[in-house]
Design goal:
single chain, 349 residues, alpha+beta, Mannose-Binding Protein A, Chain A, 19 strands, flat, C-type lectin domain-containing protein, CTDL_fold, C-type_lectin-like/link_sf, C-type_lectin-like
C-alpha cells in the first residue's frame, strides 16, 4: 500500500523538525498535512528515510500507536476473525506463564498457550486443494517456522473455529499436540485508520506505546509524552463518502480535486484499496471506463491499462461500462453495466 508509485506519488512524506509529543505531532500533521506517517512496506520505509536531510542519530515519531494495553488474539490467516465466545481453551488456559506464552497449540481438541519457541508438528490449511484440505507436518518446529512452512507449502496455519471443526470431523482426536494459527498480539494501529500490517521493529516487540524511527531505519518505541521530531504525510487520493453515479462522480472530482482515481501498479492498488475499505457502499467508483467501439478499458486520466486487477469473470462487450472497486475481499475491479448505480468514489488530488 503505498505512498510511492511509479507514475507519480500517492503520498509525500515530510520530516518536521519541531519537537512534539506523539499526540501534538498527530494534531500538527492532521492540521497541516493528512496525518502522521503511515508506512505500508519496505519501499515506503526507504522513501520516508530519504525525505529528511537530518543527520543521524535522530529519532522521530511515525503514526503507529498501541491503542490498548490489553492483548488481542489473532488468527494467522488474514480475514479470519477471532471470536471469544467460540474459543476452546483447556481448563485454566490461557495462563500466559511469565508473560511469555503467546502462541497456541491444540491437544485433544482443546487449546493451550505455550512458548513460541517450543517445537511441535503443525496443521496447515490448504485453500487450493481439490483433495486434502489439511496437512500435518512430518517434523516438529517452533511456531514461527510452522507459520512459514504452511504459508510456503499450502495456504496458512489452520485458522478459525470452522476449519478446526472440519479438521476434527476428518480425524480422530489426537493425543499429540499441534501448532494452530492462533497467537497473541498487542494491538498496534495506524493514526489514519489504515490496516497495513507492515512492521519494522529493531529487535524485540516494543515495550512502550508509540512508534518512532531510529537512525538505522528500523523502528523502536517510546513513551508517547516524550518530545521528538516527526514525519507527516500528504495523501494524494481521497475517499468521497457521497453516493453518486459514475458521471456525477467524475465531474465532482474534476471540480473539487484533480480527477477520478487511476491505478497503474500494485502499490497504488494497495493504497487505494485501504481507502475503499472505509466506504459506506459495497463498491467505489474508479476512473475506469470501457469503450465498446475500440474494445478496451482506459483510465479517464489517459493512462493505458497495463496493470490490471479486473475480475476475470468480467468479460463482455457491453457499452457505457464503468469500473468500480469491490470494498471487500480481494478488492477486484468490476464492471458496472448500469451507469445509474450510486456509489462512493475516490478522487486523486
Amino acid at each position: 500500500g503505498q505512498c510511492s508509485s511509479i507514475g507519480g506519488q500517492l503520498c509525500d512524506y515530510h520530516f518536521i523538525r519541531y519537537e512534539k509529543t506523539w499526540e501534538e505531532a498527530q494534531k500538527y500533521c492532521r492540521k497541516n498535512h493528512t496525518d502522521l506517517a503511515t508506512v505500508s512496506n519496505q519501499t515506503d520505509m526507504k522513501r520516508l528515510r530519504s525525505s529528511t536531510t537530518a543527520k543521524p542519530p535522530y529519532k522521530a515519531w511515525i503514526g503507529l500507536q498501541e491503542n490498548t494495553p490489553n492483548i488481542v488474539w489473532r488468527w494467522s490467516l488474514p480475514g479470519v476473525k477471532f471470536n471469544v465466545t467460540e474459543s476452546e481453551w483447556s481448563d485454566k488456559q490461557p495462563d500466559n506463564v511469565d508473560d511469555q506464552e503467546i502462541c497456541v497449540r491444540m491437544h485433544d481438541g482443546t487449546w493451550d498457550d505455550d512458548h513460541c519457541s517450543a517445537k511441535y508438528k503443525c496443521i496447515c490449511y490448504d485453500d487450493n486443494s481439490s483433495g486434502e484440505t489439511f496437512h500435518i507436518s512430518t517434523s516438529e518446529m517452533n511456531w514461527t517456522e510452522a507459520q512459514s512452512y504452511c504459508r510456503d507449502n499450502y495456504t496458512d496455519l489452520i485458522s478459525g473455529v470452522k476449519q478446526l471443526e472440519d479438521f476434527k470431523t476428518q480425524r480422530r482426536k489426537d493425543a499429540e499436540a499441534f501448532w494452530i494459527g492462533l497467537f497473541r498480539d498487542s494491538y498496534w494501529s495506524w493514526s489514519d485508520g489504515s490496516s497495513f500490517s507492515f512492521r519494522s521493529w529493531d529487535k524485540d516487540e516494543p515495550k512502550k506505546t508509540c512508534a518512532m524511527t531510529t537512525s538505522d531505519g528500523k523502528w523502536s518505541s517510546d513513551d508517547c509524552n516524550n518530545k521528538k521530531p516527526f514525519f507527516c504525510y500528504d495523501d494524494s487520493v481521497i475517499l468521497i463518502k457521497k453516493n453518486m453515479t459514475w458521471v456525477d462522480a467524475l465531474y465532482y472530482c474534476r471540480d473539487h480535486y484533480r480527477d477520478l482515481v487511476s491505478i497503474t501498479n500494485q502499490d497504488e492498488q494497495l493504497w487505494v484499496q485501504e481507502r475503499a475499505k472505509m466506504a459506506s457502499t459495497p463498491y467505489v467508483w474508479l476512473g475506469l471506463r470501457y469503450t465498446c467501439t475500440l474494445d478496451f478499458w482506459f483510465w479517464v486520466t489517459d493512462e493505458t491499462v497495463l496493470y490490471t486487477n479486473l475480475d476475470p469473470d468480467q468479460s463482455g462487450d457491453d457499452c457505457n461500462v464503468s469500473g468500480a472497486m469491490d470494498r471487500n475481499g480481494t478488492h477486484q475491479w468490476v464492471k458496472m453495466i448500469d451507469d445509474n448505480y450510486k456509489f462512493n468514489f475516490i478522487c486523486s488530488k
